[in-house]
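Final report, closing paragraph on structural work. Over the funding period we assembled a curated collection of sequence-structure pairs, and we close with a single example.
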Amino acid sequence: MCIRDSFNGAEFISDAYPAEDDTPESWGGVYMKIKGTYIQVGEDDVVLDGANASEEEVVEDADTTTETKIDLVHHFKLENIELSKADFKEYIMGFSKRIVKAKKEAGVAQEEIKAFKTGIQAAAGDILKNFNDYSYYCTDEYDMEGSLALCTYGAGGEPYLYYLLDGFKHTKI
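Its predicted structure, as stored:
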């Protein structure tokens, strides 16, 4: 299953990456949290951190340059963007209004819309309080009308990406 942006159709994630169960309860379940993994990317090779080279693999004395990237960012071609608090606030308010409008047009129950509004307000408030703890990612087309992925880091430095659930739809590949 592929998870695409509800508004522009961009692929952001797949169901091969399991969601974590510890998103803040105050966020009302509006965000999905997924743990990322660091990978080494260079030339045409992608190597998982901690992976051992195959015994059959011939190691050449080549001058290769590798970068450490977050797997979810690399595989789904997400781009890091710089946002100010004011930019994020404007973005999340506008994007939330688009989600509410889509829910109303789809005939979603008023209670569900109210729950979404409550959850997104709490989540946005927490994100803005800890704004500098997050990195922000959009598609490689830099479409700011679509969804964003937010990234923060655990105590051990592991990356966690957050996706606004109602900004995405599941599609079969």
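The helical segments are 71-75, 85-105, 110-129. Residues 26 and 122 are 6 Å apart (CA to CA). We thank the funder for supporting this effort.
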